[in-house]
From TrEMBL:
TM stretches of this protein: 57-80
Source organism of this protein record: Stieleria bergensis
Record SUPFAM superfamilies: Pili subunits
Protein name, UniProt field: DUF1559 domain-containing protein
Record region (Disordered): 374-413
Domain of life: Bacteria
Length: 466
């Protein structure tokens, strides 16, 4: 009845039935919603659909990611730095072992060890001569064919010309400061410690050199050897009576970095007083910049290890008097002179040394080197007057960078410095007797464990060295 009443007379019954059916279908469709709509409101669903279309990070998310990366890097960088330091030290040890093996091979071939300094001496003695090297070559030259450097050794051994004037160098080459001779400016990788960042300038550098024991005077002489090496003397293993494992053959040194660092430089033209009181060299250290020399002291023009082929003390010798990384001092000269020439390196806390048995060990800066480093005391004599102007001397002759020699008058002692004319006869001048610094080859070292490790026949007790 009611349905019929709502029917418009102008409309057909069929159209009204279709409208009723469509309304019923819409209601059933609204009731059959997606199952997730029962648990998640429509607003949340809209947010999720929008999130699926969003790209990139917000500023907060990016900041969190950056902070995490920074924290990870901060944790990893010390480990990376430590691993690099360990790697450099391992490579340094490997270089020393290769040198020790090369030295052993040299001994097997010739039944002697190479000389610390030697070469050709026959021929003109002027500095620019091409026919002689004036006996100034380091023993590192002789080791070249035994450390896989045969091509470089062949260049040195064969007469050859590298000059524009066509002149030919003789066999074994010229003096080691001749920059025209290519082998001398060639850098041998085995002679360089990777922990030393000094740049190769005019000549090839070296971080390894020969130990002459605790010798202080006539250190270029072959007489009365204290260590395994002594000037041009060639010793063999039978001369090492202190034990192969307790005797140093090669020490590590630094090279000049241009910042007055102690391992790579040495003070020149100093008084002989430092030979009698080595502990006074501590006054050369800059208190404001630890590990460097004071600016008031004159340093070498080239530094330690500046020429791997040069056998003179400033470049290529070590005496075991002061502990590693102590100041080095040249007495009354620059290169071919007596002095205190310390081992050292840019490794933290010490340096490496190779023993006669081929073992390589790390020696710390705190190793025992005797009581005060003062093996003898000076005595006082009457002042030198104007009628006696000759100063006694027992130091070996000085040699300039060009190789020219300046002989000194012989005597029993040496004054600390050139003396002015005395004003009053009561003045007293200190003169040091260098004979008191001379030690016999079989005499025990006075410089503690460090000095004992440097001697080859000092007869020190083994328990002192362990």
């Amino acid at each position: 009845m009611h349905l019929i009443d709502r029917i418009n007379p102008n409309e057909s019954i069929h159209s009204h039935l279709e409208s009723s059916l469509s309304i019923t279908a819409c209601k059933s469709h609204k009731q059959a919603r997606h199952p997730t709509e029962r648990f998640f409101p429509k607003r949340i669903m809209n947010r999720q659909s929008q999130a699926t279309h969003r790209t990139g990070f917000t500023l907060l998310e990016a900041a969190v990611v950056v902070v995490i990366i920074v924290v990870i890097l901060a944790l990893l960088l010390p480990a990376i730095s430590t691993s690099r330091i360990v790697s450099r030290r391992a490579q340094c040890v490997n270089n020393l072992r290769q040198l020790a093996v090369g030295m052993d091979s040299y001994h097997a071939a010739f039944h002697v060890l190479p000389a610390a300094i030697g070469g050709t001496e026959n021929g003109p003695s002027e500095a620019g001569s091409l026919e002689t090297n004036q006996g100034r070559l380091s023993g590192l030259v002789a080791l070249l064919p035994f450390i896989e450097q045969q091509p470089l050794w062949g260049q040195i051994l064969t007469p050859i010309s590298y000059r524009s004037d066509g002149k030919v160098y003789s066999s074994m080459g010229p003096v080691p400061w001749d920059r025209h001779f290519k082998p001398w400016v060639t850098q041998v990788a085995t002679y360089r410690c990777p922990g030393d960042a000094s740049e190769h300038k005019e000549f090839g550098l070296t971080n390894y050199t020969f130990c002459i024991g605790d010798r202080l005077v006539d250190i270029h002489s072959a007489k009365n050897p204290r260590g395994v090496f002594a000037g041009s003397l060639q010793r063999n293993y039978s001369d090492i009576i202190d034990g192969m494992s307790h005797t140093i053959t090669i020490c590590e040194i630094g090279t000049d970095r241009g910042d007055r660092s102690i391992p790579g430089q040495y003070v020149v033209d100093q008084s002989v007083q430092y030979l009698f009181k080595p502990g006074r060299t501590r006054g050369m250290i800059d208190s404001n910049r630890d590990g460097t020399y004071k600016k008031t002291f004159s340093l070498s023009d080239h530094g330690r290890g500046a020429r791997w082929a040069d056998g003179r003390s400033g470049y290529s010798l070590v005496n075991t008097v002061l502990p590693p990384n102590s100041p080095s001092v040249a007495i009354n000269g620059h290169e071919l002179v007596d002095g205190l020439f310390s081992a050292g390196s840019y490794h933290r806390g010490g340096c490496h040394v190779a023993m006669a048995d081929g073992a390589v060990t790390f020696v710390t800066n705190s190793i025992d080197y005797g009581s005060t480093g003062q093996p003898a005391k000076p005595h006082h004599v009457a002042p030198v007057t104007s009628s006696n102007t000759t100063m006694p001397n027992a130091i070996s002759s000085n040699v300039t960078a060009g190789g020219s020699q300046t002989p000194r008058p012989a005597g029993n002692g040496i004054s600390e410095a050139p003396l002015p004319l005395p004003v009053a006869p009561a003045a007293v001048e200190t003169v040091y007797d260098l004979k008191k610094l001379e030690l016999e080859p079989n005499e025990a070292s006075k410089f503690g464990v460090w000095g004992a490790l440097g001697t080859a026949s000092g007869n020190e007790p083994f328990d002192q060295l362990n």
